[in-house]
Write the structure tokens for this entry.
Amino acid sequence: MPLYDYRCPRCQEVFELLVSASTKPRCPHCGGRKLERLMSAPAAPGRSAQIIKQARRRAAQEGHFSHYAPHERPRR
Ligand SMILES: [Zn+2]
């Protein structure tokens, strides 16, 4: 069964769902049925794509420390 990332427009939750042809996805948080399917690269599992997205957002907020090794980065 394909594993897709969905976002619920009602509660803004992002989650993964296994979707078969016969089941309609529902938000596990509010039960909403109007879900947006997020497009991710087929090679990358949705979870790691989400982690990469979060890491990039955090890096953009904190500045560009991507040229440092993790233990060399300043602690907050
Ligand atoms: Zn929801």
